[in-house]
Amino acid sequence: MPNPILDQLTAQVAETTGVEASAIELINGIQSRIAAAVQAAIANGATTEQLQPISDLSTAMEAQTQALAAAVIQANQPMPQP
Question: Which SS3 state, helix, strand or coil, does residue 58 take?
C-alpha cells in the first residue's frame, strides 16, 4: 500500500540532496576561479603577501565546502533498522 507521507519525504530528501550537491559544485567552481586569478596576478607581478587575503578566503571556502559535503553524506546515510 503506497504511503503518501513517505513518498513526499523521499522526494524532499532527493531534492535537497540535489541542491546541496549543486552548491558544492558551485563553491568548487568559485575556488578554481580564485586559484586561477591568484596565479594570473602572480604572473603579472603581484606578490603572495598582497594576495594573502584572497588565499585566506579560498582556504575558508574550502573548509565550508568540506563541512557541507560531510553534511550531505551524513544526511544520506541509511536509517538504522529498529
Answer: helix
Q: Decide: helix, strand or coil at residue 80.
A: coil
Q: Is the dihedral of CA 43, 49, 54, 60 positive or negative?
A: positive
Report how far residue 75's alpha carbon sits from residue 68's, in angstroms, rounded to the nearest whole number: 10
Alpha helices in the chain (DSSP H): 4-43, 48-75
Range of the domain at 45: 22-75
Query: Which residue's C-alpha cell is 549543486?
Result: 22
Residue 40 located in a structural domain: yes
Dist. CA 80–CA 41, nearest whole Å: 51
pTM of the predicted structure, to 2 decimals? 0.56
Q: Is 80 domain-assigned?
A: no
Q: How far apart are CA 34 and CA 62, in angstroms?
A: 12
- pLDDT average, residue stretch 35-48: 92
